[in-house]
Every structure is written in C-alpha cells, then in structure tokens.
Amino acid sequence: MAATRCVCDSARFASFFSRPLSSTISCQASRQSLLQHVSATPPSYSIFPCRPSPRQLRCYAGTSRPYKGGKKPSASPPSDEDPDKDRGYDRRFTTQRDIERSGRDRPPWDHEITDPQIMVIDNGSAEGPLATRYVLTKLEEGESLRMVTPYVPANGETGAPAKLAVCKIVNKRDEYERQKQLKERKKTAVAAKAKTKEMELTWAIGGHDLATKLRQMGGFLGKGMKVELMIGKKKGGRAVEMDEAKDVLKKVQEEIEAQGARETKKAEGQVGGTMRLYLEGIKR
C-alpha cells in the first residue's frame, strides 16, 4: 500500500514566503512536523571555565591554536630581488637579522611584534605557544609585551627544531625605571674608566721643558688617568751622557711618587735608548 502524501496547491507553495506561517501551511501533517522541529530543544554544551595556575596571572586557555607552519599566500608574488623570498618559514617571524636590519637598537615591543605565535613569560613562568594578537588583548593598563629572544629557524643540517620568540610581559613604569638605572650605571662606568694619555720625552730635554712636561704628567695622574710615557733619543739631536739620562729618569720617578701613582707593568727598554713607562694615577 502506497504511503499517504500531502499534496499542496501550487499557488500556496509559490507564495510560501510571503504569507504568515499559519496561513501558508495548510496540511496538518506538515504543520505538526514543523512545530516539532521549531520547538526541539537544542543540545546543551558544558562550559569549562579557565582556571589559571597559582603562578599564572591571566588565562590564555581555549583561544590559541597551534601554529602548523608554512607560508601564507601573498596577494602579490615576492620580487626576484628580495633576499628573503626563500627563507623557508613564515616571513612574519622576527629573527635576529630582522632586528638588525630594522634600524632599532632593541627587539620589537607590543604591536611591533609580527610573529604569529610566541612563548610568553608571565610572572616568571613560560607559557605557549600562544597567538601574539591574543596575548596583546590580555594586557592590562600599564603593561607591555617585550620580545626578549627572537625567533630561531629550524636547522636542516643539524636537525635542530625551530624556536619561537620569547616575549615577556612587563610593567611599563617599572621597566622604565630599570632601564634608566641601567643607563646611569653604564654612564658612570664609562666616566670612571681611566683614560690613557701618551706622552713623549727625550733624554736631552732642557730643565724648563722637563718641568713643564712633569707638571702636565702630574695633572693627568692626579685625575686618576693612565699615562704611557716614552723617553727616547731625538733624531739629529746631541748625544746624551748616561749620567744625564739617569738624572732625567730620576726626576720622572720623583714626580710619580709625589702623585702617589704606580706602574701598571714593568718598564720596557733601557736608559739612554728607548724606554716606556706605564703609569696609573689615583683620583683625588
């Protein structure tokens, strides 16, 4: 026995979408089927709330998908003159070479980071890989995402896998103060570093000129500077007796003792020939 079917008038079928639901569906079977379909209860989904670990400051669960690698198709093919067209990995990853060519004296910060995925250090614990855009949306006011270590591509020769860039979430004000103190320390270290002055004397130098040179040397040593003193023969000058040469060296040593300076290493050469003294003063 053939199954009973509901045959609807073609005119009603044609105007199905222009009439109310109650006037469009005339057959009882179709109306009951549709009502059952509309009133069907949708399946329930269980929601698992994100529960950060004790050391973790914010939740990153359920939003980031593992990056499978590969290059995204670009709208226009790369130029033949582009040296990075065959780099073998996504161009968005930032390597040390990219940082050097960027003209910045630091790794990228915040939205300067173009890497699709990164490792994140948050409150001392490393997490990832995480989508960079998602991490940026989780930053609180006054926080900044700073790249610490750039991306390292995989090495086909050694078989070493690629390493994602490591970024750190920092407080802008605390990081500013830390960088300020670091610059001050470097500045102080450079200023405290003793500078080396080179001076030359001849064994045949006159008494007045020798006194001027020794006074100048004493001024350098009194500032805590290093002095490299060379005493030698003057080309085309008069011959100097050994006693006269020893007298010049004696006056130099007396000035060194008067300034409280010291020899950083043993003197080179010999009296009457070419002799070098390496001195370092004490800042007063």
UniProtKB/TrEMBL annotation:
<feature type="region of interest" description="Disordered">
    <location>
        <begin position="59"/>
        <end position="112"/>
    </location>
</feature>
<dbReference type="GO" id="GO:0032790">
    <property type="term" value="P:ribosome disassembly"/>
</dbReference>
<protein>
    <recommendedName>
        <fullName>Translation initiation factor 3 C-terminal domain-containing protein</fullName>
    </recommendedName>
</protein>
<dbReference type="InterPro" id="IPR001288">
    <property type="entry name" value="Translation_initiation_fac_3"/>
</dbReference>
<dbReference type="InterPro" id="IPR019815">
    <property type="entry name" value="Translation_initiation_fac_3_C"/>
</dbReference>
<dbReference type="InterPro" id="IPR036788">
    <property type="entry name" value="T_IF-3_C_sf"/>
</dbReference>
<dbReference type="Pfam" id="PF00707">
    <property type="entry name" value="IF3_C"/>
</dbReference>
<keyword id="KW-0648">Protein biosynthesis</keyword>
<dbReference type="GO" id="GO:0003743">
    <property type="term" value="F:translation initiation factor activity"/>
</dbReference>
<dbReference type="GO" id="GO:0043022">
    <property type="term" value="F:ribosome binding"/>
</dbReference>
<comment type="similarity">
    <text>Belongs to the IF-3 family.</text>
</comment>
<keyword id="KW-0396">Initiation factor</keyword>
<dbReference type="GO" id="GO:0070124">
    <property type="term" value="P:mitochondrial translational initiation"/>
</dbReference>
<feature type="domain" description="Translation initiation factor 3 C-terminal">
    <location>
        <begin position="195"/>
        <end position="266"/>
    </location>
</feature>
<dbReference type="GO" id="GO:0005739">
    <property type="term" value="C:mitochondrion"/>
</dbReference>
<feature type="compositionally biased region" description="Basic and acidic residues">
    <location>
        <begin position="84"/>
        <end position="112"/>
    </location>
</feature>
